[in-house]
Description:
The complex is a heterodimer. Chain A is built from 14 helices and 2 strands; from the N terminus they run H-H-H-H-H-H-E-E-H-H-H-H-H-H-H-H. By secondary structure, chain A is an all-alpha fold. Chain A has one domain (27-301). In chain A, strands 1-2 form a two-stranded antiparallel ribbon. In chain A, helix 2 (27-53) packs across helix 3 (60-77), helix 2 runs antiparallel to helix 10 (203-229) and helix 4 packs across helix 10. Chain B is α/β, with parallel strands linked by helices. Helix content of chain B is 39%, strand content 24%. Chain B is built from 11 helices and 10 strands. In chain B, strands 6-7-8-3-9-10 form a 6-stranded mixed beta sheet, sandwiched between helices. In chain B, helix 3 (95-103) crosses helix 5. The two termini of chain B are 32 Å apart. The interface between A and B is large, with 32 and 46 residues.
Amino acid sequence: MAGTRAKWLGLGAALVAMFAVPAAAPQYVVHIANFVLIYTLPVIGLGFLTGFTGRVSLAQGALFGTGAYTTALLTTKLGWVPLATFVPSVLFTVVLAVALGGAAVRLAGLYFVMATIGIQQIVWIVLMNWIELTNGPQGVRSIPPIGLGGYDLDTPQRFYYLALAMAVVSYILAKRVVGSRLGLFLRALSDDQLAASSVAVEVGRAKVTALALSAAWAGAGGFLYAHYVRFIHPDMFGLEPSVLFLVMSMFGGYRSIEGMIVATAVLESATEYLRPFGEFRMIVYGLLLLLGMMFFPRGILTLVPRRSAASPAHAKV
Amino acid sequence: MRLLEASKVSLAFRGVRALVDIDLWIDDGELLGIIGPNGSGKSTLFNVLSGIYLADRGSIQFNGNRLDGLGPAQIVRRGIARTFQNKRLFGTMTVLENVTVAALKGRGGSALGDVFASRRSRESTSTARGLAERCLERVRLADWGDALAKDLPYGAQNRLEIARALALEPRLLLLDEPAAGLNPAERLELQELIRGVHQQGVTIALVEHDVRMVTGLCPRVVVLDHGEKIADGDSASVVKAPHVLAAYFGGEELEEGA
């Protein structure tokens, strides 16, 4: 299996390269790399819903924000140690997502999209207006950095390895989820819901589980984000990041976790490498998206030739 | 022994009567044919039996338990599997995956177990995979396991539907026009497949247009017309009954019509 071996070599090389980034690259590159790593979490999470379940959500930014606010408030208001808030942040995001979206995720495609826009708005409005709890438009400042073994991860370089570790773990876990029977069930129901239920797939439960997983990944990403930027504001979690996460999760490759990661890197760093275009930067960015979707509707990773699925051309029908 | 017993099952769509007081029983081990003109309610009946439609009235007993009110996923767990007339495969999945989804029914382990590769999960997935492979062999699709379902030729998609239903290891198998669109050779092969599955102890109800195929396979035939059961009995005599001929072919001889 030369293909698998090349794949592992590529993966290993990528890991080594990623490991060397903080030492070799200038600070602002590390800074951007951190955002890429953080964003891969909500993007991969959204992939469970969009790619595998065929449900498009525009609430991922709100769930990302839920994770960020949970840890921010627990650390600043109650004085928790940052690491101790990880599990509560993830859990609370999951509970909120299932409570608000558990019924909606059973709806047909377009209705679910509209429901998620509603969820996005609800969360933003609560963050903005429940001032006693969230500080409202003041945002939450002075969020403490994550401390690891006596070290405060308060610089991009120090933060990088944690972000990398989280991204790698979330990638591996996501691959396992996709390869599990849940992944099989989700693909089946996104192809044909009726046929899926006719082969004993509990369609409703599978969809809610996909929603819960996407929220878990978003909550974990929000946790990282809050302790990296150290100041959060409701506007950071409006519709804009939701759209961005959606684009990232679809731009990379249809049902490809690797594709989602590549797309996150390409799009998140675009503002940097498009700098030569000056004020036309965002126009070029938009064009890039447009052309990408036109020519690679199944994602930019289709540029990379895939190992052709065992062609049965020789087989006798 | 009665495996399935439906009594007075009725269903209307916005006032249009699709099924009218249908009484239907299927004995354990039977191979029952269900025929009738287009729109006579055959597929609707299957949709009710498999939980896709909820009957307005009537009750359905299967293997001693009431089925009415249960959804498709619950009914298939109780042992009724079906195929669809208009092939409903998982197009973006491979042929083997299509069948494996079904073969996972009622197996131990969980998605979480799969993620962390628990022993229970690994065992149940490999059992399911083995079953799926056997079902594919059964319908001569073993060489196509890695192909995408949507890339299969029509006849092979047909067989994949059957393999997927077999992987559910049903007590009762509902086949909804499995021969539609097949050429004569494929029909013959399908006929043998159905006979083989039946001989292995699976009770079968076969909805089919091809009357000759039904009379060839099924000792007993039920005839539907306009949502009503108009005949039920020994296939050779049922298809000769004047009122059946009138309903089915406007009076022509059945043999010629088929």
